[in-house]
Amino acid sequence: MSTTIPPPTEIDLAAWFAFGRRHRLTLALAALVGLALGSAHAVLGTRWYLAEVRFVSVSDDGSGMMEGGSPIGGLAALAGVNLGMLGGSNREEALAVLRSRAVLDGFVTRKQLLPTLFSGEWDAEAKRWKHDDPADHPTLSDAYKLFERRIWGIDDDKRTGIITLSIMFKDREVAAAWANELVAEVNTKLRARAVEEAQRGLKYLNDELEKTGSMELRQMIFGLVENQMNRIMIANVRDEYAFKIIDPAIAPDPDDYVRPRGPIEGIGGLLFGLFIGVAIGLARDRGLLR
User: Fold this and answer.
1) pLDDT tens column, 92-146
2) Whole-angstrom Cα distance, residue 36 to residue 107?
């Protein structure tokens, strides 16, 4: 009658040592297999590249700001018109737009990136999804989750004011292009919003001109009209409207990839192999395996 050896407990070092001696060949073989698999993945696995674009926010010069007690400022506030700031001049607003789902959805849609992002589910020759059921097709929501989880990162250095947008992707040229284009996308979006707000302000001010007969008030309105027209002009001629690029993203060298990491993959494989070896040893001690 065979005696089943109880498995060692995590606090019984002597039992663990004895366990290791009993199953040393199994543990060594499993560790070597794990190390080999991890190293193979490091050499043969898909390479991912990181591209970064660095930029700063473009601040408004503050011209045209109206005090809260001024008659025009009060009327503009009632009308919902912001006479003091151009849409993209606020740093936090610009950052919020950059991180927004709307910008990313628009970017993915405009560039038709779903087949690129989910290439394993796309039949390139037939130019269709491999699944017939539309419910199984990737969506913009799936793309946003993939970007959040794996592809992009935004670092805001409060000390220097420098913002870094990083893109990690399998194609190094694509990674750099996406990083630069996303910043340009936000500049375009905020520039258009600023022009729209300023035009709304002009309409409001022109309506006020028709209503008032006060020369003093009309002079104030004329000044604000000129201010809004200047803001529209600036928005139309300044490409880097909300964000000014310091270092554009460039494609990394072919051997400058961030994943897989050779040593980390090897160590990870080694540890996983040891885990499997321990599991096999425990199963044998319990009589589940021979």
Assistant:
1) 888 999 999 999 999 999 999 999 999 889 998 888 999 888 889 999 999 999 9
2) 41
Higher-pLDDT residue of 97 and 36 is: 97
Whole-angstrom distance, CA of residue 21 vs CA of residue 61: 74
Name the β-bridge partners of 152. Answer: 167
Q: What is the pTM of this model?
A: 0.68
Query: Would you say the C-alpha torsion 244, 249, 250, 253 has a positive or negative sign?
Result: positive
Q: Which of 14, 26, 6, 40 is nearest to 275 (CA)?
A: 26
Cβ within 8 Å of residue 279, ≥6 positions away:
none
Q: What is the DSSP letter of 29?
A: H
Whose tokens are 């043969």? That residue is: 44
Identify any residues that bridge with 155 across adjacent strands, giving them in sequence order.
Answer: 164
**Maximum CA pair distance of the chain?**
112
How many angstroms separate the CA atoms of 198 and 87, rounded?
9
Q: Within 10 A of 74 (CB to CB), how many other CB atoms are there?
A: 13
Segments making up each domain of the chain, as ranges? 13-45+260-285, 49-247
pLDDT of the residue at 66: 38
> Where does the chain show beta strands of DSSP type E?
49-57, 122-123, 128-129, 152-156, 163-169, 243-247
Count the neighbouring beta carbons within 10 Å of the beta carbon of residue 31. 19
Rounded to the nearest integer, the mean pLDDT of the chain is: 80
Q: Report the C-alpha gap between 124 and 129 in whole angstroms.
A: 9
Contact criterion met (CB below 8 Å) for 170 and 258: no
